[in-house]
Amino acid sequence: MLATAAIAAVIAIPILVVLSYVFVPTGDIWQHLASTVLPRYVTNTLWLMVGVGAGTLVIGTGTAWLVTLHRFPGRDLLQWMLLLPMAVPSYVIAYTYGGLMDFAGPVQSALRQLFGWHKSDYWFPEIRTLGGAITILTLVLYPYVYLLARAAFTEQSVCVLEASRTLGAGPWRRFLGVGLPLARPAVVAGVALALMETLNDLGAVQHFAVDTFTTGIFRTWFGLGEPAAAAQLAAILLLFVLFLLVLERWSRGEARYHQTSIRYRALPSLRLKGIEAGLAVAACTMPVLLGFLVPLGVLLWWAIRSQALGFDERFAGLALHSVSLAALAAGLAVVLSLVLAYGARLRPTPLVRGLVRLASTGYAVPGAVIAVGIMLPFAAIDRTIDAWARATFGVSTGLILSGTVIAVTFAYLVRFLAISFNAAEASLAKVGRSMDDAGRVLGRRPIEILTTIHLPLLRPSLLAAALLVFVDVIKELPATLVLRPFNFDTLAIHAYELAGDERLAEVAAPALAILAAGLGPVVLLARSIGRSRPGHGP
Amino acid sequence: MSSPALALDDVSHSYGAVRAVIDLSLAVAPGEVVCLLGPSGCGKSTVLRLAAGLEEVQAGRIAINGILAGAPGTHVPPEDRNVGLVFQDFALFPHLTICNNVGFGLRSRDPVVRRERILAALGDVGLVHAEQAFPHMLSGGEQQRVALARALAPRPRLVLLDEPFSGLDARLREQVRDVTVEALRKSGTATLMVTHDAEEAMFMADRIAVMRDGRIVQEGTPIDLYRHPISLFVAAFFGEINRLAGTARHGEVATRFGPVPTGLADGAAAEVVIRPEALRVSLAGETGSGTVPARVVSAHPLGRSTRLVLALDDGHRVKARIWGLYHPAVGAPVMLALDPRQAFVFPVD
After folding, report:
1. Which residues neighbour A386 within 8 Å (Cβ) at sequence distance 6 or greater?
2. Rounded mean pLDDT, A316-345
3. Does A350 lie at the interface with B, CB-CB under 8 angstroms?
4. B296 strand-pairing partners
5. Taking CB atoms and an 8 Å cutoff, what residues of chain A touch B164?
6. Is the ipTM of this complex over 0.85?
7. A457 — contact with chain B (CB < 8 Å)?
8. Between chains, do B77 and A440 touch, taking CB under 8 Å as contact?
9. Chain B residues with beta carbon closer than 8 angstroms to that of A435
10. CA distances for A250 relative to A144, A256, B92, B331, B345, angstroms
């Protein structure tokens, strides 16, 4: 109970620190920012959100509708392959398309060779633009919408869809008039999640030279050396996030009212033939091809071309750093979530519930914002301790918290605790209260009930949650970039630095490793898709 | 005389502003089976949770085997009460085999003793063959029996049953009920059972306490309650009824079926309650037939009995239930007579 409240409060600190900067009086630097770069940050960020929102909405719901309610060749395969782009971090897809599409890249070179064009003879879409950033972010983020929309379509009562058919609604009216409105809460939540990831992105927009809030925070802090102004930018970004959070929570609440009946049957799937089937296959293959197979192909091509694959000793060191950070964060996240969830279950007081909710909003907060929210207080604490030690003992303690594994692990927990907490809470909720009661009546104390009943029942979902956190930490870029200990490079950092130096071909080794790790959650999700339909056996 | 297995004295309990149990007193003697009967939301499940120690006592006191278990400021936690509880949803641990479920509450660590007790408990409910199965592999009725075996295995002096048969379909219910009664009698443990099904209560109980809005409104043997309900509520709870309005005059209420005796004061508005099976139905003109003519509105043969809706001369409709299959034509004339022992008079509230 006390532990629950304490954990939740500590996790909430960075968010509260940044929020407090909304009210800090503005200095000259802020005026400067506001009159120069801020409008650009706002426009770019808004356009990015509009573009990615629309793109993920169309691709996510469209493909979900096709695979849940229609039969066409390859549907079963595409059903889970559509998740594959989730395994590709946004910065990796940005690097691959950047390399593929730029002037010296293979596509333009081939075109020039084929048609004998020269530099100014032809028009080619410039990939390193806002439009390019929207496209590649859409390609890796649509699976969020796809997953939730698919679940919503699957859970919809068949009856309404059949009713609409008997009332003469054609396929488009069934989709736009019945299926989509009923799935709206899930779709909105999916888009909100995709947009949270968009705001979090640093590597892709930076590589494409699109100035957003996230890149602005970095430039203001490290370029201009103005942490306070960076914190204020972070605070504004947090307001965007808050809007998305409210949108997501609200739509989740709505979901209840959209559930019409709890009778399930096998979904009536419409068999598509001829051209229709061909179009459906094409529509579902394109996202997989562009969002996963092309980046994978480019990485493999780079790896083969550069001969020395890059899997050397240095690579082993980076991988070890990544894996040990990820394992530490995943283990802590699972243990802490279990304490949080079980505490909230035993004593669901409003205070505990509120703190737990606040602590689990971290997933929505961009890594850059969390980094700012941790750096500021940690640096202040370090300075205080250092000053005290020097005054008292005459020795300098230097940096104790900032720039250590503690700081970066803390950031991972703030950002990813929600993943493991939601898993722990959801599976605890599935264990009926009468289980606890039965255990107690049969002579066991609450702590024994946790170990003999809950832990064995929760083990599969806790392991899955640990895997999700693990992979997310491996992929994480912005917070790691700021908070990692000096000279402590991870795979993601290495890829980022190589891309920054335009040594794209060398990105292949770390990027392939990250991508391989990212396949873990996809496999988990794909497996749960197979048995997600209620009433269809275990 | 030994102390009761369970004694509740003036127990009250609220959830926030909702008063679930009000000044309730109830005792269960060793070996006795008592049923708390009432509609859902009347507070009967709260009584069980209080007895089990899953809720702390807010007012009053609860003693188990004569030892104080719960009172304001005193709370023996459920794990120290040695009380068995069978849950409505059975609450079997899905990750444990039947054998380990039943053994969960055993205190002994000696494998030989444990094995013996588990097999004995499973034997009493006829499920020894299923000991290595997991709960989801069993039918609903079998799961219920495992839940009972698990509650009885630690040999509690008191077993609490929370709507134990409500999760089962009608046919299974009777069969599982027989097994349950037998196992409970054999164990000799005191039992407090909660149900909203009057027939179930009558079948299981030595004594029934009818609850309404947090209070016990009547307590007695099943036959007592059926024969002498003290209120319309209790009468209605034990089955379908016909209600006729009337007025008390000289210790009687006049009805279409003749006078029914009452203790109500002269002039008091009264309600006469007649059970469907208290109406004797015969064909018009048959010897010994009743005195009140009526016509058949509908007849539903239900197997063991037939339910009739009949219209009296004045258009008033009554329900009657007679044994066996009987399907008169709609509109057929019949004669009715009343068994006055199954007619009750209550004051109008």
Report:
1. A396, A397, A398
2. 90
3. no
4. B310
5. none
6. no
7. yes
8. yes
9. 91, 93
10. 17, 11, 36, 60, 56
> Inter-chain contact B91–A440, Cβ cutoff 8 Å?
no
* Residues in chain A closer than 8 A to B104 (CB atoms): 439, 442, 444, 452
- Rounded to the nearest angstrom, the minimum Cα separation between B296 and chain A is 40
Interface residue A453 vs chain B (CB under 8 A): yes
Residue among A438, A444, A452 whose CB faces B91 most closely: A438
Interchain proximity A437–B93, CB inside 8 Å: no
Position A157 pLDDT exceeds 60:
no
Residue A204 to residues A71, B11, B113, B156, Cα–Cα distance (Å):
36, 67, 67, 66
Does the structure show a pLDDT above 90 at A146?
Answer: yes
Q: Which residues of B touch A440 (CB under 8 A)?
A: 53-54, 77-79
Chain A contacts of B77, Cβ < 8 Å? 440, 445
CA distance A173 to B138: 45
A435 in contact with B at a CB cutoff of 8 Å? yes
What are the pLDDT digits (tens) for A424-473? 888 888 887 888 889 998 988 888 888 888 888 888 888 888 888 898 89
Among B124, B141, B143, CA closest to B182: B124
Separation in Å, CA A353 to CA A8, A250, A311, A360:
9, 18, 47, 11
What does the block give as tokens for A188? 């909105």
Which residues on chain A are in Cβ contact (under 8 Å) with B84? 441
Contact B91 A453 (CB under 8 A): no
Strand (E) or helix (H) holding A237 = helix A227-258
- Residue A323 one-letter amino acid: V
Report the residue of chain A nearest B158, measured CA to CA: A441
Tell me the three state secondary structure of residue B4: coil
Residue of A nearest to B83 (CA): A441
| CA–CA dist A51, A138 (Å, integer) | 8
Residue among B72, B189, B88 nearest B140 (CA):
B88
Shortest Cα distance, chain A CAs vs residue B239, angstroms: 31
Q: Cα–Cα–Cα angle for B45, B47, B48, nearest 5°?
A: 65
Mutate to test the interface with B, among A441, A451, A461 (most CBs of B within 10 A): A441
Strands B305-312 and B317-323: antiparallel
pTM summary value: 0.76
Mean pLDDT, 10 residues at a time, chain B of 349 residues: 87 91 94 92 90 92 93 89 88 89 88 92 91 89 92 92 85 86 89 92 93 94 91 89 88 86 85 89 71 88 87 88 81 86 84
Say if CB B273 and CB B324 are below 8 A apart: no
Residue A162 is predicted with a pLDDT of 66
Q: Are A367 and A241 in contact (CB under 8 A)?
A: no
For B87, the closest of A434, A445, A457 (CB atoms) is A434
Specify the residue for token string 């990796």.
Answer: A92
Q: How far is CA B108 from CA A171, A389, B111, in A?
A: 65, 58, 8
| Both tokens assigned to A16 | 């509260």
Structure tokens at B293: 């003519």
CB A352 within 8 A of CB A5: yes
What is the dihedral sign for C-alpha A495, A501, A506, A508?
positive
Q: In sequence order, which residues have a C-beta less than 8 Å from that of residue A439 and are 6 or more positions away?
A: A448, A449, A452, A453, B93, B104
The 8-class DSSP code of residue A289 comes to I
Question: Which residue in the set A434, A439, A457 is minimally distant from B95, CB to CB?
Answer: A457
3-class secondary structure, B221 = coil
Q: Do A443 and B154 touch (CB under 8 A)?
A: yes
Please name the residues in contact with A215: beta carbons below 8 A apart, sequence gap of 6 or more: A202, A205, A206
